[in-house]
Amino acid sequence: MRTNQEIISSIELEYQNKRRRNEINLQKRKRKLYEQYPYLEKIDDEINMKYLSIVKDSIEEKNVNNKTYKDIDELKKQKKQYIMENNIDMSSIKMNYECNICKDTGILENNGKISRCQCYINRYNSLVYENMNMSKLFEDCNFDKFDIEIFDDVKKIGKFTQREFMSKMRNKALSFIDNFDDKNEKSMLFYGQVGVGKSYLCLCIAEKLIKKRKNVVYESSSELFEKLARYVFSSDKTQNSDAAVFNSLVYNCDLLIIDDLGSEMTNDFVRNQMFSIVNIRAVNGRKTIISSNLTQDELQERYEQRTFSRISSYYNTYKFIGRDLRMPKLQIK
């Protein structure tokens, strides 16, 4: 388990690498544009040289010649005219950021006060969560240890044997990971009887995406709603409280995995929270995976039509088949 300072150092390195990648990509795009329009590079070089002469004169405490400023204005006019005549798209040489608010620094300045950007806070909270909750789960639950041979390959259930079905689901899971950033990639609902690999596949997906630096929250439904209740019914709503941090992660993490939905004691609070989570995350384009031992009809009855309607619209649903596996090492649920 990493220390808090190690987590902070890791995030600082991430942000440094972001800025470095941004600058490298910008220079590549600029070089490509200059190769296509050499005269544009010539004008930019002349403008830069004029600015350098101004800086040099300032350092040497010399009076800057007003003609230099006029030359710069004239060069800028020439540049603008050249861009218009050649219909050049200059948007390609603008700096691109993952976070346009802090420009990938993780820092905000307002009236001389320094604070952390929300993107930095989300990344920190996510790494702390992963550090505390996820590491042990991944020791055996990952695609490297996904053994398709443990599933039955004799008895067909519908079109497939259990092994054939799990092989297809493994491929679907990997496709979900590969296309995770595609807005058209839907969330997923895994349902079926106990012990057929739903939770194990969820953990494999989580492990892979965390390695891709995605923010993943994995919770059993009973733990999820218990933790949300601590926030909702708490008098301490400060941003940095543990309950507030978790509540924010549930709605803002890249991937939320709700395992074993239906195992909790379902009441009006749970139903309202479930609708809020499914609805808000769907509207904001954030992906969710839900696993449950309940049938689709049972889910609709327990969590109401409005929630199931959102799931039907924004989720791909998969019914897991086969015999109940109780493998001590894999702990497939």
From TrEMBL:
InterPro entries the UniProt entry points to: IstB_ATP-bd, P-loop_NTPase
SUPFAM superfamilies linked: P-loop containing nucleoside triphosphate hydrolases
Biological process per Gene Ontology, one example term: DNA replication
Superkingdom assignment: Bacteria
A GO molecular-function descriptor: ATP binding
Domain (IstB-like ATP-binding) ranges: 130-303
UniProt protein name: IstB-like ATP-binding domain-containing protein
